[in-house]
Structures are given as C-alpha cells and as structure tokens.
Amino acid sequence: MSQKSLFWNKAKTPPELCSILETLAVEYPISPVNGEVELNFTQTESKGKSSVRFTGGKAEITYNRPVDAARAIGNVLAGLESDEHTEFKTYGIMLDCSRNAVMTVTHFKKWLRRLALMGYNMAMLYTEDTYQLPDEPFFGYKRGPYTMAEMKEIDAYAKSLGIEMIACLQTLGHMEQILQWHAYGKVRDTASVLLVDEEATYTLIDKMLAFWSEALSSRRIHIGMDETHDLGRGRFMDLYGYERGFEIFNRHFSKVEKMCGKYNLRPMIWSDMYFRMSNSRQDYYDLEHDIPQDVVNMIPKQSDLVYWDYYHRDKQFYVDFIEKHRKLGYEPLMGSGLWTWGRLWNDHEQDVKSVKPCLQACRETKLDEVFFTLWGDSGAFCEINSVLAGFCWAAELAYGGDEDPERLEAQFKAIAGGSYKNHMTAAKIGAHILKKEKENLPIGAPFLLWDDPLLGISWDSKLNTDPDFVDKAVKLYDSICAELADQRDDNAAGDINHAWLYADFLRRKVAFRRDLLKAYESGDKAAMRSLANKTLPEMSEACKAVTASIRKMWHKYFKPFGLEVLQIRQGGQLLRLEEAGKRINEYLDGVITSIPELEGKTDQPTNDHIYKCVATGSTHI
To answer: Which of 126, 225, 226, 333 could crosslink 369 through cysteines, CB 3.0-4.6 Å?
Structure first.
C-alpha cells in the first residue's frame, strides 16, 4: 500500500508542531497546503500520552509534548492508529564520533528526522577530539572534526524537531588521540589521561567548554571522565607523589564543574569511577563495597551522574544499581546501549537481552531519563544505519508497545524506508553460535572477518570455546545469504547487500580454513591444490566485494577520515589471502616441507575481541 500524503492547517496547529512538520516535509509526504489526510492536533495534560485515530480524511492526534506528537505523526505515516504512553521525560541516543567515524551533517539530519518520528527527544554526538578548537591544530587532526558552524547547524535542525542536542565530550580520560602528539606533552598524565592540577590542562578544558557553550543551545553538557583507571599513576605521580584516586578525581571534577558554571552549563559525568575506585578489582558493577562517605561528601553537587550499563540481563541488578546512585544523593540518567560495537550489524539479540530489563527497571524505579549509546570500538566497522531498526524497536518499548512485528514493519518502512524483517535477518550475523556462551563474548563475525587465513588466531579461540562452532558458523552464514538473496537492493536504511556480502565472505572463509586444516593434516594434496588455485581466488573476489561495500558505506554516512583504517585491514587481508595461496603451492611443489603457520595451536582462549590480536601474534604497527 502506498503511503498517503498528509497536510496540516497552520492556523490551527501550534507553532512548535508547525516547525516539526515543516522540517519533516523536506523528506516525507507532508505539506501545509494539500494532501490526502489532514492532521488535527489536540493537546492533553496527561503526561507522555498520545493517540491517533483516523476519521474520514482526517488523522486526529492527541498529544502531551511535541515529542509525543512527532511520534504520532510517524504512526500516521505508517497508517497506524495508536494509544501510547511513555514515562520517560528524556529518551535519546548518543552516537560515537570518536572511533574514526564522524557522521556528516547531512546524514545526521536524516537521523534526526527519523528519531523525531520514532519518539526520541535528545541526542548527543560523542566527541573526544573531533571538533575544532581555536589555536589547537592537532585537535581532530586528520579526523574530520566538526566545525562551530556545523554544530550550530545541527543544533538548530534538532531544535526544529523538538530534539535537545547535548554536548558529549571528555575532560579527563579517553584523550589518547590528542595526547599522542608532542604538542600536548604538558597536559599528559598517562597515555590517555589529562594531568590534573596543571594550569595548561584547564586552559584547554576552558576552550572545550567555550566551544560547546556557543555551539549548542542546551545548558546541559556531558563531560565524560569515565574509565580513568590509571589516573594519577603517570606524570602526576612523578610530580606530586602518590595520592588516592578519589581525591584527584573529585578535585578535578570540582574544578571543571565550576568552569561549567562560568558558561551557565550543568555538567553530567559517567559515574563508573566512583564505583571502580571503591573496590580493589576496579569493578564498576561491584555490589559489595560502598563508596566512602568522605568521598560522597566531596562529589560536586551542581552536576548529574550517568549510570551506564550495556551488559546486565537481570532487571533486579539495574534496580539495585539505580538505588546505589540515589544513595549518593543523585537522580541518575540511564545510559543503556544498542549494540553497534564489536559487531558488523546492530546486534538485536544482545539488545533484547539487555535493553528490555533495563527499561523495565527504569519504569519500576521511576527513573525518567534514558539514552542509548552507539559505540564504535575498534574502528567503527558496524553498518551504522542498521541501528535504525534498533531505534524503532526500542521506541516501541518506551511507548508501551508489545513488539508487534507487523506494526514494527509498518513503522520502519514509513519512517526509514527499509524492511524491518530484512534487518532482523541481517542481524543474525551476530547471533550467539557458541556452545559456552558468555554474556558479552564477541561471537566471531568481525574477528573471523580479519582473522589471518594462515595463523587462525580467532579460529583457535572459537574452537577452544566450542568445537562445533565451524559447522554452526557455516550453516548460519549460508542461511543469511539464502534469506537475503532476493532482498539485496533494500538499502534505504541499513544496506542489506552489505550484510549479504559479509555473510558470503565469512561462509567461504570459515569453510576454507576448515577444509585446509583437514587436507593439510591428512596429506590430501589434491584438495590443497584446489583450495589454493580455485577457492582462494574466489575468496579474494568476495573480500574485494566487501572492501568496495565498506567504502561505499563510509562515504554515504561519514566524513572521509577513518576509512583508511578499515581499508588497511582489508588490504592486509587480501595480501594474506594471496600469501596463503603461495605458501600452499610452495608446500605442494616441495619448496618447503611444512607450513608452520598452520601449526602451534593453543588450547587457551585468545584476546580475539581485539583486532591486533587477531591479525597477528607479532609486534604490530
């Protein structure tokens, strides 16, 4: 069924809704002049409630807030009547723009339109150094940093859709990208942590705060400060000696909080370090130890804490940890995650297991500010538009839906233009295929992708975890290819062909190594020659197709910087496939008497969630 065109009467429509409709009209069949279905809006005082009813040629929408009205418009576009309610005051996303992939302004505007129609009203762009600062030429150097003009453009666009843009940066740790340059030696404590109590550190932070204060209209700002495990253990200790981490952390936080006050900004930080430093294991999710009261007393009060948790699958754990934050005297924001890191495609299976209990706990505890992180660890290789299906699904949870596949299909088609069913099929590429499943064990797809074809480091790890993984993996990737074979032109949201190409290469690669080891160990030289001269060239072509698709994806969504990392990996993969063929033929021709790279296995699991530990066991660049 074709999508019906919508129109609205400006004289009868509240100005903030006119702004939303006018912004959406650049892409969707919505007009202030004429159309097939007239939009009528009635505001209600019932918090977070909205409804859609079709009467003749009209769509009657009741709403409480602009975000509720925007979501209702999404339902109208999908042809769906609705009665919805959400308890969440803030429902947003945080996109990682610091792991190489800096989304273009144009594409992020497209995301903002989709987010509004799904019912999100907040967004953050996580920027460690990917924004331009005056007189700081290495800030975002060769990284595609956002300019002041770009951020103002994004902010104004988000505002027109009723979405609050909140700055999300770092003011203590995770600063390795700038600290690698000699120009920042004076502010370096360790390789990733800024030097506390150094005047130059606060001069730099002041520039950061000044930038975001001017760039965005929101007076909330996320200043990071998470995972500073080695705080005070580098140059700080050389200069001042040992000092308890709590004191260093709180002193720095207090200084930055006061600096935020200068710009009328209210800061929030990730809360993990308070919990990590309270126990010797540095365990964020420790339930046994309390934070010392003297430390609690020192936590700056004109600020907020963000409880991040992407892992737990038990509602009660979230409930307990929310209460631990409240005992500190803070009403936390909840930072959950839609899994885009360590994955080739948004991992719906992991989302379901972690997001659902998290939202249930937030409802039970009446915590009303939630956002979803979209990290890009290890090079941002996930097909990032695949998470649009995750947005659609998570929004249904927030607005009281029951995950009806037909409603999700209609919503996703109307808002994002793609097939929700196809996205769920593609998401199987991250399915848990290992027998001894751990909660967050990387399943293998991205790491089998770059696993060296001769060394097989990731391969060994998978066999150690589950000896049957090979056959299950080939069966899985075969099934994905079969199910998506006639859907490869679906690319309005995540590119289905991209997922197909990944699955096709992976099934070939896993089968190749299985057959190579079997032939080598049994002395089947005929099989080895076929693998070297027929199978490997076909794999190389499949690898080239993946490489071309990565390039296409990157230039569609992101600024050009960072693509080189994935191309270096893919280029290395192609050379190693070529090398594998040469080594096999040298062995078959008697030039060498063995292939040592295929030998020397370990019976212990390896660090296969880290690219450098998959590509090589040697010293690396």
So the answer is: 333
